[in-house]
Amino acid sequence: MGQREPVLILGGSGQAGAGAAALLRRWHPTLPLTIAGRDPERARRLADELGHATAATVDLRRRDLGLPATTACSAVVAALWDDRLHGLRYARERGVPYLSISSGLVDIAPEIVAGAQRAEAAPILVASHFCAGAVVLAALHAAREFDRIDTVRIGAVLDEQDTGGPAGAADLERWSTATTAGLVRRDGVFTWVDGPDAEAEVRRADGTGLPGRSIAVLDVPSLALATDAPDVRFDFAVGESTGRRLGGPASFEAGVEIEGTDRAGTPTRTLRRLTHPSGQRPVTATGVALGVERLVGLRGAAVAPGLHTPEALLDPAYAVERLAESGAVFTDVAVG
User: Fold this and answer.
1) InterPro entries, per this entry (predicted)?
2) β strands within 38-181, DSSP E
3) 145 near 261, Cβ under 8 Å?
């Protein structure tokens, strides 16, 4: 690996950041990491556990992040809300890739403008999808058996005890404050829905339902444009997961329903469930780690400067393989 500079993970001691760091260490034992956070002791403990890692204290209110001028990195990962975009500025001034997961569909405009203004500077991976793009990649893997796709519908359950720590809870609150409407693609048109049109029943892995609603999430345009499906919807419910209903820890569960035609032109409908007995953290961490691995050149060709989304850079089959390694389970469900 030579003298590769470390990957700087902002929020590296939080749930998503620490989980991604652990996976990167497992996949690439000598990849240097910098675990950056507000709590120096917590960051130091994690860095010591990982090995080939250092700890740093950052201040997101400062343009230089409060880091010494001599600090070097190969990429910047914002595993928390980069509200002033100082992490993005820091990456672009150094010409290194940047990955974010907390902007959501309602907050990505500044990142898009930054990418357009200096498209030549470095890659920006906008991965503020549900679970950092892991569900989109799983859905695209399921879609490979289709010749034409008419409908993609995702139904995801987030256990109320598994919102991702303080940062994750703050993200959910911020997004819900920005809009209560959901974004769908209906008959080829991206449409905002609210009120009764946004309501939906989301099925848990055990078949029971939870009241949910369509949400404004990047997964909708990503799936719509990747599959050319004229009808795409992402429904979301917060409540008791199947894991807790059965007396265990909070589980992660998402159903991917696809309708269209197969290679022989026969109408086909499939339902595949992605579940994880340990909740959303390992799923999100896998999405982040896959993005980092690709951005810093550890898998695949060099990533060109400009804006990217997970499905534009990552192989769905490889993503599913890594998700399964993390403990995720994929189940095909019979549909009528």
Assistant:
1) NAD(P)-bd_dom_sf (IPR036291)
2) 53-57, 75-78, 98-100, 123-126, 146-159
3) no
b/e code 50-73 from CB counts within 10 Å (16+ = b):
beebbbbebebeeeebebeeebeb
What letter represents residue 317's amino acid? A
- Give the DSSP per-residue string, 165-203: HHHHHHHHHHHHHH-S-EEEEETTEEEEE-GGGGEEEEE
Grouping H, G, I as helix, E, B as strand and the rest as coil, residue 145 is helix
* Confidence (pLDDT) at 246: 94
CB 185 within 8 A of CB 222: no
Lowest-confidence segment of 24-28, 254-258, 296-300, 332-336 by average pLDDT: 332-336
Domains of the chain: 7-130+284-315 (3.40.50.720), 133-279+317-333 (3.30.360.10)
Predicted local distance difference test score (pLDDT) of residue 177: 80
pLDDT at residue 336 in the model: 64
CA distance 311 to 129: 11
Residues near 56 by Cβ (< 8 Å), separated by ≥ 6?
A: 8, 34, 35, 36, 43, 67, 71
- Specify the pLDDT at position 163: 81
- The crossing angle, in degrees rounded to 10, of helices 15-27 and 40-50 is 20
What crossing angle do the helices spanning 15-27 and 280-295 adopt, rounded to 10°?
60
* CA separation, residue 265 to residues 13, 145, 226, 268 (Å): 50, 11, 20, 9
Between CA 187 and CA 317, with CA 254 as vertex, the angle to 5 degrees is: 85
pLDDT at res. 37 = 85
Residues, the chain: 336
- pTM exceeds 0.90, yes or no: yes
At 206-240, the pLDDT tens digits run: 999 999 999 999 999 999 999 999 999 999 999 99
Query: Given a cut of 90, is residue 166 above it in pLDDT?
Result: no
CB atoms within 10 A of CB 333: 14
Position of tokens 């590296």? Answer: 12
